[in-house]
Structure formats: C-alpha cells, structure tokens
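Here is the promised in-class demo. Please do not try to memorize the tokens; focus on the logic of going from shape to residues.
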C-alpha cells in the first residue's frame, strides 16, 4: 500500500505503558520515523507526560482504545504488563509482533552491551560493573532497570558501552538483541505467578540472555548454581564461558583460594586481591564482585583499576543498606529483597542476633529455604503486611512472630524486641505493593521512620 504521493506510509508502532521504558521507546520510535502512539491503562506520571507533549507524541491514559492499538505493525510492551492482560491478548490474537523496549533500542545502536540477569544481585552487580568501567575511563552508561531507558539513551544520549540490568520480563520479548557480555548470577524461584507457576518457564526466560551470542562474546555465570548447571547440560553455548565459584573448579575463571584471596584467571588477566579488601560484605557480594571483575577483565582493564574499584564501591540503596545505630541496635534496609533467596543472602551476611521484618505481596514463596538461617540467627520476626497469615503460620513454631499491618507498628515492635548488639533487618521476601508503591518507597519510608527514632 502506498499513499497518494507514492510515498510508503510510516510503520505504526504502539507503545503500551508510559513509564521510563515506554516513554523512551516512544521517543526513539519517533526519531526513527515511526507513526507512534502510546497508551497507558493508568495515570501517566507528570514527568513522562511532559516528555510526550514536548515531543508531540500522541498518547492516552486511563484506559486503552482498542482501535488505536490493533492497527499497529508492532507493539512495544512495558515489562510490567502481564501476558494475561486483555489488551495483550487482543494484540496476540491479531498476530501483531510484541517486543520489549530493549529489543527496539538494540536495533539502532552498535554500542557494546554488558547484560546482567539473575534472581538476585542484578542491581549491585550492574552498578559495580559500571563503576569499574567508568573508573577506568570507559564511556559507559547504566540502562535497563537502572537510570534512563536504553531506548532514550540510544535516541538522545549515546554511549560506547551500556551496562544493562535485565529482568526476566524484559527478556521475554527480546528476539534479535545480542549481549556482548552476558552475566547470569543465579536462578531461584521468583515471579512464578507470571510463569504459570512453572519453574522451567522462568529458567527459560533467564537463559534468553544467551540468544544470538557468538564465539566473540563472553558468558559469565555462577557455576555452583544447580539450576544453571542443569540447564547448561542441555544447551550448546557459542559464547566463551568464564564461570565463577566459591572454590576452584577445573575451569573456574574466578574463585576464592585457601588464603582467602579473590582470584581472577582469564586468558587476558591473572590477578589476586584479598577478600577483606572488597567494599561489599557477605558471600553473595563476593559472587557479585567476581562477576563484575570478570566483566572488567574482558575489557582488558588494568589490574590496579579493577582492585581499586572493587574496594571503593559505595553500594546500592535498599540492598543491605546501613541506616542507623540507635541505642546500640543496627537498623539495615534491605527492601530490595523481594524474594526468599535474596533474604537468604542477607541473613547469611548477618553476624549479630536479628529482628527480621518480613511481609508484603507474596509471590508463591517457599520459606523453607531460609528456615535454617532463621533458626540460627533470628531472635524474632515482625510480619508487616495486609496478609501475614502464611508467615505467621510457617515461622511461629520456630521463633516468636509479631503480626503488624503497617510500617509504624512494625517499627514499634522492632524497637521493643531489639536490644543493644542486635540488628533490625528489613528483608521482606515479598513485593511491596500491599502497603507501598514500590520497594524503593518501602525502603525510603523505613529509613525515614528509623531516623525519626533518634
């Protein structure tokens, strides 16, 4: 079909969802000559509405107009929209291709992509890799679940390297996108409500990070993870593999030796540094540091620069974030721990008796994974949520559990239970959406409430 003046009409691209991802996708599509329309079922945040209006991008909010969506040549779906949403079902019924914002952005850049996924540790590892690269003078930028969307940066603020944190939801709608370095940290049950409560579906989503990789690319992964190990037995990986482990295997590229030294042993780099020099504490952060260090080795960054960056990294907000010491009690914000395995890592790092705050929107949690650590390290649990029955029932036979339905009551309960030398740890195991807007909102409200105790 052609127009009256014999020009081919612009391809129509519809963006569903007007958050950071969707707005960036709309701007990139507009710059690339698409006929763009954005639709959001809820209210669009003022900062994103301002961008859309400034860019003259047509949009709607508060609902979807089917006729304006089902005429699309392609749809960019926000990762937060489930496949069961009626509008997505309608798009799929029309056989309209659905892609992610990352997939769209990847079509229009030749920059190197360092992509990180896993059930836990993604944000810390992503920011640590970025820290090392920038410290070494490389033009690198954060993208994915951190900072400005990749699409926005490709359109308006290009960089030589992007360090991209990827959730399973983003990977679901990526097809031709390729990572130059793919990092897979771990796989534990999470978001199973989005994957028909089938673990293999979730595993398959995570392994999409390997799509399209070549022998010139690098795959970095934790080789002690049983789920990853089992999946790799079934696959042929074209990329060069640099696995890391707590203790050395025959093919380990990073590990801890008998002298408690962190060892990196790759074709291009051989180096050691004391584990005690790492900026981040806890075994899980040793693994995060290994993954980040191996990524840096691929870039042939100087050993001294890698050591320095691993030792002076400032950490990530809401991830084992020290908040205050009040009357000898340490208060720790680990609001980003939205699944059981993430809480396990937090408890593993604790060295003093713990008053543990759990609760929120349960995602099909199996709390048995953390029970041994709870028995060993937790003196009391404070359940904070609208529906705490599962937590109370599971943990009450083992430790005292206090049931609260709001942050103020939870803080008060912790204050009464903790004594000097204890740690109050907010590591909820659950999503935040019962009481808070996001895990960031939960963490910031927690910190504010703790600081008000001073």
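The designed amino acids, position by position:
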């Amino acid at each position: 079909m052609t127009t009256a003046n014999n020009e081919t009409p612009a391809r129509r691209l519809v963006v569903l969802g007007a958050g950071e991802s969707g707005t960036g996708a709309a701007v990139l599509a507009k710059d690339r000559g698409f006929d763009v329309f954005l639709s959001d079922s809820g209210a669009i945040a003022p900062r994103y509405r301002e961008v859309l209006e400034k860019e003259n991008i047509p949009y709607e909010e508060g609902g979807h107009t089917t006729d304006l969506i089902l005429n699309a040549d392609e749809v960019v779906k926000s990762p937060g929209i489930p496949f069961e949403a009626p509008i997505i079902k309608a798009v799929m019924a029309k056989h309209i291709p659905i892609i992610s914002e990352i997939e769209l952005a990847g079509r229009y850049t030749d920059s190197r992509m360092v992509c990180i996924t896993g059930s836990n540790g993604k944000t810390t590892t992503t920011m640590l890799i970025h820290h090392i690269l920038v410290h070494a003078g490389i033009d690198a930028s954060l993208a994915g679940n951190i900072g400005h969307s990749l699409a926005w940066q490709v359109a308006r603020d290009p960089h030589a390297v992007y360090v991209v944190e990827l959730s399973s939801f983003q990977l679901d709608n990526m097809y031709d996108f390729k990572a130059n370095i793919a990092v897979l940290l771990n796989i534990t049950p999470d978001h199973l409500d989005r994957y028909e409560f089938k673990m293999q579906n979730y595993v398959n989503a995570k392994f999409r990070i390997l799509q399209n990789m070549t022998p010139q690319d690098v795959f970095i992964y934790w080789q002690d993870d049983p789920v990853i190990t089992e999946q790799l037995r079934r696959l042929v990986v074209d990329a060069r593999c640099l696995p890391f482990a707590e203790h050395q295997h025959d093919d380990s590229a990073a590990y801890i030796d008998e002298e408690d030294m962190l060892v990196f042993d790759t074709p291009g780099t051989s180096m050691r540094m004391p584990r005690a020099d790492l900026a981040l504490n806890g075994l899980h952060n040793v693994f995060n540091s290994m993954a980040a260090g191996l990524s840096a080795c691929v870039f042939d960054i100087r050993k001294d620069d890698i050591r320095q960056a691993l030792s002076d990294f400032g950490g990530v907000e809401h991830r084992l974030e020290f908040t205050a010491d009040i009357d000898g009690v340490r208060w720790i914000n680990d609001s980003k721990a939205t699944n059981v395995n993430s809480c396990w890592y937090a408890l593993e790092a604790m060295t003093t008796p713990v008053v543990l705050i759990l609760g929120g929107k349960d995602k099909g949690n199996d709390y048995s994974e953390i029970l041994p650590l709870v028995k060993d390290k937790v003196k009391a649990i404070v359940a904070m949520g609208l529906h705490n029955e599962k937590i109370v029932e599971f943990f009450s036979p083992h430790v005292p559990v206090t049931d609260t339905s709001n942050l103020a009551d939870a803080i008060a309960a912790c204050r009464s239970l903790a004594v000097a030398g204890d740690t109050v740890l907010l590591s909820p195991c659950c999503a935040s959406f019962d009481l808070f807007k996001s895990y960031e909102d939960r963490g910031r409200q927690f910190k504010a409430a703790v600081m008000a105790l001073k």
